[in-house]
């Protein structure tokens, strides 16, 4: 295959994969919109496209919406308004009937009347049946043409064959592909690792396929021969598509359909392919081109193996011949094998497959009569809801109701959704009466915007003397964090950012050096010691892990808390936030490479080198020389040694440059620190009147035996806890040099008497843990005691409030036990129920109980004259909020397709995700226990309401500058509302324009 063709196929596959959303490893679960790649479409178009590609529902069932309506989340007046709007848009009003009343009665009736589930009445007038019969008669030619043109867009070739023959080709192919992928993608869970993965996915799989008996049994003897035909994945893709006679113009859509069959695995491969620095991707490379090749080879082999059982052939042209030249036979086959046949013919249709002409007209009329009578029987009951009899209306009105109902089936979800959003929006804005509290401040507290913070903030403020603010939980400090005793970087920021600064966590020394060189020596010593620590401690404490099963089962809370104290408590640590100078960097480089040189000298030459000899050898190699005079070995051995030092030990100028470059990214300059703090404080409007203590509280979750634990952590920290970002923020904000820059360059004067204290809000127990208290000025200790007591009281109140939803009774201990009980499938509700994102002053919502369902981001447009701060909030936190909202939305509307089903059936797969049962696709989205309660929707699936407090014209300009938000607003992915404080009026973006919806009262002082 020539290079141009190869590149074209690679490009084709990658473009075809774009509708498949990324899937992050579960240990860093990232909330995302499962239709994110379709956001260039309108919300309504994307829902339809998602149904086509993934087979997922974009709306709840009628029963689901009725359930929410009974609980006050949908008001009938708004439902009726949306029904009228639907009838007008579709021009479906029927003369002589209150059509809107008929529709409202139908969709709100708890019997859930539906043509598919009603028995046929015997008193239906025959003339009426004959009158409407044409509406229910099917045309085999039209039906089969629709089926044929769907191949490539809505079905694969073998899915169409399954539908026509009742075979199970799809499940066989998916099973073989999933087993192949999970084996390759495993990250240390498998007892026996797949061999030769370093070759890459396609080549490693080829090697495995030679010896795998499962493929032989399910794909036949021709499988091994087929596999060995191809050296490159692109060759396999082209060969199979051509061999199946798929027209080239269909290749892109066809590949998309193939990839969507296992969207979790493909989404993970797409993520890995995009993150080339990911450890497992560098070690065992894989991409969607490799995957497509593997899958298509399996498809071709299985189809060839099953060819004898497929009566019309197993390629695109054979299918076309059947569906276009033998339509009646094909129609009867699909009726029988897909369960569409009317009861009278359900068993005997196969008798007519060879001679369809003898039965087709009789069958078509029988099916039309059946469907017409089913609908008219349903219509009797529908009309009776309004006290109308079928005999009370004319035939033409009946025909109109047939068409109305057909259109209603397509649009009912839209009607319900809009009515629910109207209800929630009205409740939100009508309760918004600005309240400004005038009281002395005990403390100020910065919380994450996370909906779970709303409850805690409200309960803390109720104690008096507390002013709280909402900010994205990474606190404006994006960083790559290297935790103590862990050797890898963790990106602590929203996934839409890539941090450019590295922060190291080091143990606190009782006596630290004050000289720069001494400090660097300590840093190097700490790094070296804490790389070795895990290897030492695991063996020493390993025997204790045997007690886990007994302890976690019978005494979960007591045991787990004791275990945390004994095993999981880290020594006191500090964060290395300062930039290293050139001299310091050079010292570390030589220390690191010198340590390697000493090991090499001992191992290769048997020389126990002193410092001078080590330095001379290192200098020799970094200067590109071949010999070192101080080495007591022959020139030949020296040349061999230096060659090995460069190749095997990687000690050379390139390695030195690489280390220097990495060290340049460690820490932040003072100017960078001041800029980060200034932007964060200005973005929430906290630029003056600082309290003596400012709490900076990240959040995290705690649970046992929960693969989804990181889904409960901080989305703004990339699915990790917010502890480290809070600590980093406080170190910066407490630095006198940073404060000087803040005062002189940014006009923010933080008094010397103000101290920032980091902490963590455990959202499972609502406990607050404060950090770095040993650094707190002694004079603030009495105040701290009061604050800690108030935090405890607010936490208990919050936990008891949550206990009602969790159904554990009004006992605080029961809420805490959820965090330690490893049989608990719902330790907390997390972000379930989120429906709005408010950007504005706390005064707007201070008088409201928002039930832990609203994101609250503090903002004061008066300190943001150019709108740059609002721009940052829209492009960062609001986008993340929309991802969270859409993940919950679609996981609720279709938990099996867009969510991950019940946790009860989950098994961890390869340490990257979960599968259902022993083998399935990687399950994406949220589990049922996060969004459903006893099978009913707990989460309210609506599009996010984004409410901004700022002048309307100001907001319009800022939104216009942020492409992503402008797209989300205009394409109706979010409902944007503006509260213009200069006019005291709410405006909502609807149908391409801003519409005034409500006025608001003046601010109230308390």
Automatic annotation (TrEMBL):
Domain of life: Bacteria
Membrane-topology annotation of the record: Peripheral membrane protein
Required co-factors: Zn(2+)
A GO CC term assigned to this protein in UniProt: plasma membrane
Keywords noted in UniProt: Cell membrane, Membrane, Metal-binding, Transport, Zinc
InterPro entries: DabA
Primary location group: membrane
A UniProt-annotated Pfam family: DabA
UniProt-annotated location(s): Cell membrane
Quaternary assembly: Forms a complex with DabB.
UniProt family annotation: Belongs to the inorganic carbon transporter (TC 9.A.2) DabA family.
Role, per record: Part of an energy-coupled inorganic carbon pump.
Name by which UniProt lists this protein: Probable inorganic carbon transporter subunit DabA
Provenance organism: Hydrogenivirga caldilitoris
Gene: dabA
